[in-house]
Structures are given as C-alpha cells and as structure tokens.
Design a protein that fits this description.
The protein is α/β, with parallel strands linked by helices. The chain contains 17 helices and eleven strands. Among the domains are: 145 residues, 3-Layer(aba) Sandwich (Rossmann fold); 114 residues, no CATH class. A seven-stranded parallel β-sheet has the order 4-3-2-1-5-6-7, sandwiched between helices. A four-stranded mixed β-sheet has the order 9-8-10-11, covered by helices on one side. It binds NADP nicotinamide-adenine-dinucleotide phosphate.
C-alpha cells in the first residue's frame, strides 16, 4: 500500500483523485491533504480518509478545524508553509500536486525536493520554474509523472522510445466553447459562457484558460520542460472531440497517438499506478460511436494568447513567468467581472510585449519577476478598465 498526499484536495483534480483512490482502495492510503478555503469539502475528506496532517490557506479556518477535531490524531496547519509541510510529510510515497496557479509552486518544489513520486497537475509550476524543478528532481531522485491529459498521452507514447528519435510533439486542444465564434461575437462573451467547457469539467481558472486557449499555450511550455524538447519540436492542433490527447511524430515518419475517453480520471489513475496499470471503471472508448476525429489549425489571430505563449516559450528566461503572472491577474479580474473576456488576451499580450527579459535561475528571482509583472498588470487594469 502506498501513502498519498494531495495538494489541492478540494479542487476538481483533488476530488477526482480521491474518487480513484477510494475505488482502488487496496492500493493507496491518504495520509496528507492541503486545501485552500473550502472547509466544508475538506471536513468530509478528513472524516472519510482520516489523513494524519491537513493544511488550509487561512489561520482562522485551521483554528476552526482544530476545535472540531481536537480529539482526533490529525495535525492541522495553515498557509504556504502548511502546504509545504503536507508536501514534505515523511510518510508520503506519492504527492499529487493540484493547487491552482503560482500558489502551487512552493508546495510542488517541497514535494520534488523530498525525492518522492509526484503526480503533477499544477502546470503553472512547470511554466514558471521548469528548469529549477527538473534540476531539483535530478538531485533528489523525484519522479515526475504528468497528470494533464495531453502530457500523460505524450508520456505514454514515449514510454519505450528514445528522445533523440522524437521529431515533433503535438498537443491537442478541444478549442473550448468559442472556437467557432467570430471575433465580433467574442466581444460579448459572458463569464457564465466562459465557464461552460464543452468537454472537460475543471476548476474555474483552468476553464477560462481553456476558453482563451491560454491553457494550451501554458501546456506547450510545460511540455518543453517535462520532455526536454526544443520549442520548434512543439505544436498544437485543435481536435474538438478530445479523444486523441497528443501525437508524437518519430524520425522514421511513424506518428504515435494516445486516445482515451474524455475523463481526467484516466490520466490521474495512470500517474498514481505508473508503471503498472489498473482496470478502469469507465466505459471503454467506442470509436464506432465517435465516428469522426477532426483536426484543425488553431487560429492564432483570434486566440492571440497562443502567440503570446509561443513568444514566451521561444524567448525563455523570465518570459514564461511574465506570461503566467499577467494571465493569472487578468483571469482573476475576469472572474470578478472587472474586465470583459476579450480584455484577458489584450492585457496579457500587452504585458508580454512590454516585458524586459531577465535571466532567472533562483526561486527568489522567479518570485521577483512574478511580483513585478503582477504589479504592472494590476496597474494596466486600473488605468484602462
Ligand atoms: N481540472 C482539470 O481537469 C485539470 C486538468 C489538467 C490540469 N489541471 C491543473 O491542475 C491544477 C488544479 O486544477 P483544478 O481544476 O483542480 O482547480 P480547482 O478546482 O480550482 O482546485 C484548486 C485547488 O487548489 C486549492 N488552492 C487554491 N489556492 C490555494 C492556496 N493558496 N493554498 C492551498 N490550496 C489552494 C483549492 O482549494 P479550495 O477550493 O479549498 O479553496 C483547490 O483545492 C491547475 O494548475 C490546473 O491547470 C487541471
């Protein structure tokens, strides 16, 4: 039996992970959980899975839970340090990293530093600190298994391949809810529409990123670090059915693809059970029902964040940090109804174009670049909207 910690247990990936762990009951035991502010869901998880340590974002929520569980043997802690403590908990064998955004970076680094197996969903960590994370994993011996469905697909395609034989990796994107809309129609998109993803049920931030296609841009950068690829080896194809998750073109002309039903439980389970596989409880993929698999080029003029992400991917240095920070600030503003949907890409594009590249090697330099870009983006939002 392996011990599991979940960073972001109350979110979409966290809850899906717990469902899988519950179904594969004989294989895993939950020992540590970290969440943000959703104490209601966290309490149900504590009662069902009996972890030994839990962390929340805020002190007041932790104190409330301490009173409630004072007779139980669960340590309750809080803040970023609390989430890091959960990530480093000595009994962990596997850590699922699924906190959204840069808030997941320090806990992810703590998990990587511990040298354990990491099931990585928090793509923003790889985007802003890919090189640092890979160096750290190399030193600690941590094994990083991707949870993102596209990267899980690439990982599976590459299982028996030599990297020098890989010509190109293509990540697919459903295209989100607005792929067929004209630029003009996109001007009036509401928050409710942006949160209705046609294929995947996910947290709000990643759902908005999917509708602007920034999610795919972030995934290109994530793939660059996960698989040590050059920017020119990475591409995107729109595939509305979301059945083929990625394609890997080999030097001999063969193209390997990974297909599965559109359900995050599949890549999450694979990351947990890797290198073995367990039976899935989901219905099998029936291509005779799917009938057609379509593929299109992404319209980078309409979805300009792909252009911004590609620029950041190619420039490297502090560019991906600036891209991510500007996007996190703009998406929060949209979720709070302070800006319109189309303003997200306008703001991020402008910040990336204005960005002055710095070399970033240390964690402090990453956080400095992140903080400066957030400030710049907030100022731009204040001036303009
Ligand atoms: N959902 C998917 O299908 C999917 C697929 C591929 C990759 N991903 C990636 O996985 C990550 C999680 O996505 P999600 O959809 O699960 O997001 P989500 O539903 O919004 O969940 C985010 C989780 O992070 C927690 N959290 C947020 N801020 C925190 C903080 N400061 N300290 C501790 N915990 C904090 C939240 O806690 P509370 O809710 O308690 O506040 C929640 O548990 C993202 O990076 C996303 O891009 C998601």
């Amino acid at each position: 039996m392996e011990n599991i910690a979940i960073l972001g247990s109350t979110g979409s990936i966290g809850r899906n992970s717990l469902e899988i762990i519950d179904k594969l009951g004989h294989m895993f035991r939950v020992v540590a959980l970290a969440a943000g502010r959703n104490t209601r869901i966290l309490e149900t998880q504590i009662e069902k899975f009996r972890p030994k340590i839990v962390s929340l974002e805020r002190k007041e929520d932790a104190e409330g839970l301490r009173q409630k569980y004072e007779h139980e043997s669960v340590r309750i802690t809080f803040s970023q340090e609390g989430a890091e403590e959960v990530a480093r908990f000595e009994e962990n064998d596997i850590i699922i990293s699924a906190i959204t955004g840069i808030n997941g970076l320090r806990p992810t680094l703590a998990a990587v530093d511990s040298g354990k197996k990491i099931a990585l969903a928090n793509k923003e960590s790889m985007v802003v600190a890919g090189s640092l994370i890979q160096n750290m994993a190399h030193e600690s011996g941590a094994q990083i298994i991707p949870v993102d469905s596209e990267h899980s697909g690439v990982f599976q395609c590459l299982a028996k391949e030599r990297m020098e034989n890989v010509k190109k990796v293509i990540l697919t994107a459903s295209g989100g809810p607005f792929f067929w809309k004209s630029r003009r129609e996109m001007e009036n998109i509401t928050l409710e529409e942006a949160l209705q993803h046609p294929r995947w049920k996910m947290g709000k931030k990643v759902t908005v990123d999917s509708s602007t296609l920034m999610n795919k841009g972030l995934e290109l950068i994530e793939a660059r670090w996960l698989f040590s690829l050059e920017p020119r080896q990475l591409g995107i194809l729109i595939h509305p059915q979301s059945i083929v998750h990625s394609l890997v073109e080999m030097c001999d002309g063969s193209v390997l693809a990974q297909l599965s039903p559109t359900d995050m439980k599949i890549p999450i389970q694979y990351a947990l059970t890797y290198p073995s596989r367990e039976n899935s409880l989901l219905p099998s993929l029936d291509l005779s029902q799917v009938k057609t698999l379509d593929f299109f080029e992404a319209d980078v003029d309409k979805f300009s964040l792909i252009k911004a992400a590609r620029l950041a991917l190619e420039e490297g240095g502090s560019f991906p940090i600036a891209l991510n920070a500007a996007n996190e600030v703009a998406v929060s503003a949209f979720l709070e109804r302070r800006i319109k949907f189309i303003n997200i890409s306008e703001v991020v594009m402008e910040i990336v174009e204005r960005h002055q590249k710095r070399e970033v090697l240390s964690l402090e330099e990453i956080f400095d670049a992140d903080r400066d870009t957030r400030l710049m983006t907030q100022n731009l939002l204040k001036e303009r909207y």
